[in-house]
Write a structure and sequence with these properties.
12 strands; alpha+beta; twelve-stranded mixed β-sheet; binds coenzyme A; single chain; globular
């Protein structure tokens, strides 16, 4: 049975059952990834940025004879942002290949269509059943990134210390747990705006004006995700010349996620990229002692970033692709296949 589901009002048993399914999916498809914890999972599923909406459905097994609710076997949610619906689907490995995934996509796609959106995007992890699934449903590959993972036990901390100090004269680095300080928000947003116009195909626009930046930091905090920032300030102008952002999620606090790393065009060639990333790792080592790994996603064409990541010890893990489909065509195809 598929039904619309609101994580804000869901029972604790449903949240726990969804977590079991998510961890069974990870064990089957991404066995090297750490299992998720329940910490702030409800908030992670419920909270969105202003102007965005997330609509969710779950598929539950039949209740037991004594009335105990059935397990959550699958879940779909769609995040409505801009002119696109971003889809996420999970089916418990024990319930796969019986059409449940297709039913969940059909349910979400119909709603996205009714809401007037034109296209649906989805992140598809390479070397998992999702690839064949979305291709069978008519989604087309738009964009490929490589995920890389850094195992912190392999890091040479002395060498990293040298990298962190290797920034050109006229710049200094600052570490800001929680986000940039208020007095730097505008300069920080300006640095992010520089890459705004680059159409890198990512589903989620990065934050480029001060208000959007504040909203996005608030949203991260509400979802139980702790942001850390290292920035390079150009001493002469006070401008933010470079920045790097890492988020430690309460749901998997042993593996952090690298977000944006930006070096503003005029400040390239001074070692800022390497230095801010190295400094970040050193700071995280003391701020988050449980941290074991950091994961990052890069466009395959971004050779400069891949080179720095390799020097820091990141190892390429697998492809991470974005697929999309026209909503009307998808609904038509899925209805015709019934
Ligand atoms: C992708 C996923 C949703 C598919 O769910 P499902 O219920 O097994 O899918 P369906 O039974 O509806 O399959 C529909 C069609 O997709 C294709 N398909 C699905 N899984 C496939 C597989 N493993 N191999 C080949 N084709 C597959 C088939 O064409 C299938 O139709 P068929 O069974 O009639 O041949 C499920 O495997 C899943 O949850 N994967 C994990 C998703 C994820 O996000 N993982 C990574 C981060 S945790």
């Amino acid at each position: 049975m598929v039904r619309e589901w609101d994580p804000r009002t869901a029972s604790s048993a449903e949240i726990a059952s969804l977590l079991d399914t998510l961890n069974a999916v990870l064990a089957a498809d991404l066995p090297q990834d750490p299992p998720w914890r329940e910490s702030s999972l409800r908030e992670y599923l419920a909270e969105v940025m202003p102007g965005e909406r997330r609509i969710s459905w779950i598929a539950q097994a039949e209740p037991a004879v004594n009335g105990t609710p059935g397990k959550v076997l699958g879940q779909v949610h769609v995040l409505l942002l801009g002119d696109i619906g971003v889809l996420e689907v999970l089916v418990h490995p024990s319930a796969r290949r019986s059409g449940l995934g297709r039913d969940l996509v059909r349910t979400a796609a119909r709603r996205v269509y009714q809401e007037g959106f034109q296209s649906i995007g989805v992140e598809v992890v390479g070397d998992t059943p999702s690839v064949a699934f979305y291709e069978a449903l008519g989604f087309a590959k738009e964009y490929v990134e490589t995920r890389s993972v850094l195992d912190l036990t392999t890091v040479d901390w002395a060498e990293l210390g040298q990298m962190a100090g290797g920034v050109g004269a006229g710049y200094h680095l600052e570490f800001h747990p929680g986000g940039p300080p208020d007095e730097l928000i505008e300069a920080y947003a300006r640095a992010k705006a520089e890459v705004r116009d680059i159409d890198d195909g990512e589903l989620r626009p990065s934050s480029y004006d001060p208000q959007r930046l504040r909203d996005s930091l608030d949203c991260l905090h509400r979802r139980g995700m702790k942001p850390y920032i290292v920035l390079a300030q150009h001493e002469q102008t006070g401008e933010v010349a470079g920045l790097t952002e890492v988020v430690v999620p309460a749901q998997h606090p042993t593996r952090a996620d690298q977000y944006d790393t930006i070096v503003v065009q005029d400040h390239r060639g001074y070692g800022i990229d390497r230095a801010i990333k190295a400094r970040m790792l050193m700071e995280l080592r003391s701020a988050e002692p449980q941290l074991a790994e950091v994961q990052t996603w890069n466009a395959q064409a971004n050779e400069a970033m891949l080179k720095v990541n390799a020097e820091l010890g990141y190892r390429p893990d697998r492809e991470w692709c974005e697929y999309s489909v026209d909503v009307a065509e998808l609904v038509h195809r899925l209805d015709a296949a019934r």
